[in-house]
């Protein structure tokens, strides 16, 4: 039993080691979806966990009015409580990342309660007090610039409450086409363990949420509207007779809010002109200026470029989004000039760089990049920071421009840290590509803004070839660079953005500012067009009084807020209670202009308590998984982790052999397991035979001294599994041969002795073959353990030196990454000890067998000399 336990110990060690390697190959953390996804209609649960009611949010109604380049949007959330007790509904939802949220109102029957703007902590205190006192209240807070939380407390039984949110924004415009985007879903966000930024709360996810979406957009352009198209939804369009006004609605009544609503249209006019909008009351003037780029074709530019393609291969990108990203990269690689250099970086749980440095765009290098990218599958968390550093850090030590093409859905929770990192690398140009139907537009837009590039959004149905062509056309030669404005004698102040970004496409520069004194002046837009100086004279007039366009106050405040936020990117205390940079300035901006910020919030409270003796039941509203992602088809239950993250390698050189290396390790363990199975079977046979050998030897030592061969053979037959018995039985079976009786007595003894010697040699070879199998098992385990330790050891070193993580995070990772090293050597030592022990046992057994057979051979020889062997054997065989 003691030896059997040792074998079990060996098997246990191997099982643990294999499990350890498989565990190392799986995703470390899945915060791309640390959520409880669901399917069907989610229900409200009571305090006992029982189903109490349907989801409290029934519908979201969106009404947008577009006038010129500005849109005013009303978002109405309709909550209904089917229970017999009050509830509290909490809803995490997105808005445009350019939205200036300036109003919140709740409607309870005919009662209308206007929300007030307060400091966030004060608004939360007011809301909690109202909630506990039984008064209906609503709280609107900002979690990210494009993510908000709506909390509604004490919704009465069978009661409907409508919460109306208002915001304004300036439409995007490019190549003669306006675009209105309304996001509908917040994708689950991955939160790196090293991040100091608070994680975004994750609501339940369902394939069919309990609420629907309706959208109505009115376009009042004052000019004929053309080509009204939605690339995301089926729409119905109604147009006036003069085509100056169009109304767009969703064709499907109960639309699932699982993808961004995207509407594009054109305005019929022969020439696009600059647009100046002003608003001034009481010597407090605001303006928004849309400066259109010149109509001039780009000059040919064949100068070599360094382009780095960075692709998100995390779990949220698995499936259609990753395939679309691959398609775009394949087309982009085909557009490279032979004099261009490029590199490929993939990231998920770990970052992998294909080449140590950018390589020429030769056919061989491009095919290698395509092959590596084609093998990628979505899995692991979105550890974006190491990829940002790997892509941008080399630009700090070079004098030429590095262009980074970043393809991701942006489902991360540490946006501000990522943006702060991009600000540290000014000698690179970042072009962000949002792949999918509900991407994080705030992160992607701001990455491009801070990185001096442009953002592109790639829907799953988009033409990848056109996307790649636009990208290369933009990086080939910027349209207008190094821009600044000479305002002449106009007393403008606080103009944003302070640094005008370069133009890579035919989109206007949007300038927002303030003025205190009216006046007319010719201002000059300076820049470089094709590398040569460019100046445009523009006549402007700031009126003394203009009550139109009051929304410009809010839009200017939003621009000022964006500027203050950009100065604080990367600060660890960005959302903490401590005093981050510009916090008080942001608070005062929000309070003065009634503007939602991360430090201000809207709160609306009904004055009369209605449920003083009942605490409301809290329910977080479920949301749909973004269409096309892995979250869109998940079912209720605990979230299983993502698939394995990408294996890490030093600048991509080891990446080419990493998977093969892991396969080799696993192959060694599989071979070791096979050899172990054979070896254990042989060892068990050896153990049983040795046990019977010892008993047989003891019985032979106790037999009578008269050397009666019949008694000898009966004793041997009583131990059929002993090696001695099997060897001797082989010799006795020789006596069954027909020609045996025709031999002389002397020849009969010789034949039996020769057969016994032959059987003994065969049996010994079989035992030693089992020993060789056990020896092979031991050495394979040692080799696999050492290989695993070396692999995970070098990966750990590279993980620290090339991802440049913080010390605290690296120490946390070390405890996990270094575990296989002592574990592998421990198993190897255990296998070596087991081999040595088994070797001694088998050799001892072979020696004991040889000794026992030799003693019995003497007895047979003595019996043969006395002419007793044949008769005795005949009697024994007859008895059998």
Short description:
This protein is of the alpha+beta class. Strands 8-7-12-5-4-16-19-18 form an eight-stranded mixed beta sheet. The protein is elongated.
Description:
The chain is an alpha+beta fold and 880 residues long. Helices cover 38% and strands 27% of the residues. The protein has an 8-stranded mixed β-sheet with strand order 8-7-12-5-4-16-19-18. Strands 23, 24, 25, 26, 27, 28 and 29 form a 7-stranded mixed β-sheet that branches. Strand 21 (275-281) and strand 22 form a beta hairpin. Helix 11 (655-702) runs antiparallel to helix 14, helix 11 runs parallel beside helix 16 and helix 14 (745-803) runs antiparallel to helix 15 (807-817). It is elongated and about 140 Å long. The two termini are 33 Å apart. Mean pLDDT is 77; it is low at 1-10, 16-53, 635-656, 802-806 and 872-880.
List keywords for this structure.
single chain; 880 residues; alpha+beta; 8-stranded mixed beta sheet; 7-stranded mixed beta sheet; 17 helices; disordered N terminus; disordered C terminus
Separate helix tally = 17
Placed side by side, the strands forming the largest sheet appear as 8-7-12-5-4-16-19-18
Describe the largest sheet.
Answer: 8 strands, mixed
- Gap between N and C termini, in Å? 33 Å
Shape: elongated
Low-confidence stretches: 1-10, 16-53, 635-656, 802-806, 872-880
């Amino acid at each position: 039993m003691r030896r059997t336990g040792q074998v079990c110990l060996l098997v246990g060690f191997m099982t643990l080691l294999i499990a350890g390697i498989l565990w190392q190959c799986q995703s470390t953390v899945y915060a791309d979806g640390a959520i409880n996804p669901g399917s069907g209609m989610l229900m409200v649960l009571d305090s006992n966990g029982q189903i109490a009611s349907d989801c409290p949010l029934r519908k979201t109604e969106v009404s947008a009015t577009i006038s010129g380049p500005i849109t005013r949007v009303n978002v109405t959330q309709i909550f209904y409580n089917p229970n017999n007790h009050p509830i509290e509904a909490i809803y995490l939802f997105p808005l445009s990342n350019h939205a200036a949220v300036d109003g919140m109102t709740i409607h309870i029957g005919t009662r209308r309660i206007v929300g007030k703007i307060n400091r966030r902590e004060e608004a939360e205190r007011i809301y909690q007090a109202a909630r506990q006192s039984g008064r209906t209240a609503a709280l609107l807070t900002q979690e990210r610039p494009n993510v908000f939380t709506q909390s509604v407390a004490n919704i009465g039984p069978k009661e409907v409450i409508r919460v109306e949110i208002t915001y304004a924004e300036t439409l995007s415009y490019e190549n003669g086409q306006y675009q209105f985007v309304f996001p509908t879903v917040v994708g689950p966000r991955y939160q790196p363990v090293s991040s100091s930024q608070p994680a975004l709360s994750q609501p339940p996810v369902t394939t069919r949420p309990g609420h629907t979406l309706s959208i109505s957009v009115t376009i009042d352009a004052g000019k004929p509207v053309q080509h009204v198209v939605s690339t995301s939804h089926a729409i119905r369009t109604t147009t006036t007779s003069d085509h100056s006004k169009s109304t767009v609605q969703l064709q499907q009544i109960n639309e699932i809010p699982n993808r961004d609503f995207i509407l594009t249209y054109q305005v019929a006019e022969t020439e696009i002109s600059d647009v100046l909008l002003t608003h001034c009351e009481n010597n407090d003037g605001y303006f928004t200026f849309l400066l259109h780029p010149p109509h001039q074709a780009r000059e040919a530019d064949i100068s070599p470029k360094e382009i780095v393609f960075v692709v998100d291969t995390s779990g949220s990108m698995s499936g259609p989004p990753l395939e679309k990203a691959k398609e775009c990269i394949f087309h982009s690689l085909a557009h490279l000039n032979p004099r261009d250099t490029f590199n490929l970086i993939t990231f998920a749980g770990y970052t992998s760089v294909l080449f140590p440095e950018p390589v020429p765009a030769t056919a061989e290098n491009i095919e290698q990049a395509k092959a590596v990218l084609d093998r990628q599958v979505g899995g692991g968390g979105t550890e974006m920071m190491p990829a940002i550093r790997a892509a941008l850090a080399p630009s700090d030590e070079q004098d030429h421009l590095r262009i980074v093409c970043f393809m991701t859905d942006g489902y991360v929770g540490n946006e501000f840290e990522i943006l702060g990192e991009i600000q540290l690398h000014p000698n690179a140009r970042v072009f962000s590509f949002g792949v999918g139907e509900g991407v994080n537009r705030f992160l992607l837009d701001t990455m491009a803004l801070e990185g001096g590039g442009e953002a592109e959004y790639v829907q799953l149905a988009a033409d990848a070839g056109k996307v790649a062509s636009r990208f290369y056309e933009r990086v080939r030669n910027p349209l207008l660079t190094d821009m600044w404005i000479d305002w002449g004698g106009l007393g403008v102040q606080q103009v944003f953005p302070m640094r005008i970004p370069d133009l890579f496409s035919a989109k206007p520069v949007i300038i927002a500012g303030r003025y205190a004194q009216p006046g007319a002046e010719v201002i000059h837009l300076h820049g470089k067009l094709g590398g040569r100086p460019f100046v445009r004279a523009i006549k402007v007039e700031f009126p003394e009084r203009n009550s139109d366009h009051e929304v410009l106050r809010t839009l200017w405040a939003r621009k000022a807020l964006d500027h203050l936020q950009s100065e604080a990117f990367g600060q660890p205390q960005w959302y903490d209670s401590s005093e981050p940079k510009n916090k008080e300035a942001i608070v005062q901006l929000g309070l003065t202009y009634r503007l939602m910020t991360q430090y201000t919030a809207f709160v609306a409270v009904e004055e009369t308590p209605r449920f003083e003796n009942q605490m409301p039941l809290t329910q977080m509203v479920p949301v749909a998984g973004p269409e096309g992602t892995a979250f869109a088809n998940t079912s209720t239950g605990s979230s299983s982790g993502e698939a394995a993250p990408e294996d890490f390698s030093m600048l991509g050189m080891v990446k080419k052999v990493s998977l093969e290396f892991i396969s080799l390790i696993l192959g060694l363990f599989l071979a070791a397991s096979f050899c172990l199975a054979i070896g254990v079977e042989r060892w068990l046979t050896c153990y049983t035979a040795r046990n019977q050998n010892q008993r047989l030897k003891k019985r032979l030592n106790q037999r009578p001294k008269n050397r009666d061969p019949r008694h000898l053979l009966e004793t041997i037959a009583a131990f059929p599994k002993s090696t001695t018995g099997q060897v001797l039985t082989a010799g006795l079976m020789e006596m069954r041969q027909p020609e045996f009786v025709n031999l002389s007595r002397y020849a009969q003894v010789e034949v039996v002795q020769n057969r016994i010697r032959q059987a003994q040699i065969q049996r010994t070879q079989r035992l030693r073959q089992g020993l060789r199998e056990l020896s092979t098992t031991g050495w394979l385990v040692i080799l696999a353990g050492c290989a695993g330790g070396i692999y995970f050891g070098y990966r750990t070193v590279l993980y620290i030196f090339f991802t440049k993580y913080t010390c605290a995070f690296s120490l946390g990772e070390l405890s996990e990454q270094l575990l296989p090293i002592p574990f592998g050597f421990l198993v190897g030592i255990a296998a070596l000890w087991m081999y040595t022990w088994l070797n001694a046992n088998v050799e001892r057994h072979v020696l004991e067998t040889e000794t026992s057979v030799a003693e019995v051979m003497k007895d047979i020889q003595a019996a043969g000399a006395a002419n007793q062997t044949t008769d005795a054997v005949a009697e024994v065989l007859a008895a059998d």
